[in-house]
Amino acid sequence: MTWERARTEKQKQQRIDEIIDATARLYQKYNFEEITFALIAKEAAFTRSNLYKYFNSKEEIFFEFLKSDIVVWRQDIVRSTESKSFTITEFAEFWLEVQQRHLRMQSLISILYAHLEKKSSFETLVNFKKMVVAEFETLCTLLQKIFPKLSIENATKFIQIQLALSIGLYTMTDLSPEQQKVFEVKEFAYLKMDYEQYFKQSLVYVLQGLIKDSV
Known about the structure:
Largest sheet: none
Helix content: over 70%
Distance between the termini: 59 Å
CATH superfamily of the largest domain: Tetracycline Repressor, domain 2
CATH architecture of the largest domain: Orthogonal Bundle
Order of helices and strands: HHHHHHHHHHH
Mean pLDDT: 92
CATH topology of the largest domain: Tetracycline Repressor, domain 2
Strand content: under 5%
Structural class: mainly alpha
Low-confidence stretches: none
CATH class of the largest domain: Mainly Alpha
């Protein structure tokens, strides 16, 4: 791209989309820690100074496509549950299946608290939290339709707990080759965790407890 100054709101949004797309491409090849502002600028065919006209840090850029991923994930859940009923076990299986269709979001959420939020401005965090609250409110309403005995308070707790479970299990099972090799040692084999099995089983226990607590 030949860089030209954006003069209209449409052109500004185009530049922002180009930056986000470039960062998303990099994230397919590199870990978060390996991606720098300079690398993003190069991938987007911007200079660093021009990149600063739109974002103050790489964390701000990552927040933008995480927000997009969350919206797409929520839309998938709403669309996939339309006119359907679930047992608790079936819903846990469904929730996992949808999550597996949005692996980039899962990966981004795993670095949300340890990296993105810690290095972001108050304004960025507030804007992100407002967006997340709106998306989660939609999901809580959906949960109540599926499980009428579940209170809105406990539906909110479910969303928060599943998020914590996902982050914890993802970081414990997204292993390097050396970490995986350790579990091949017989005395450590039993410590290896299966993400899908543990996550699904945990969701069942959480839902059962929250529904019972709502009655």
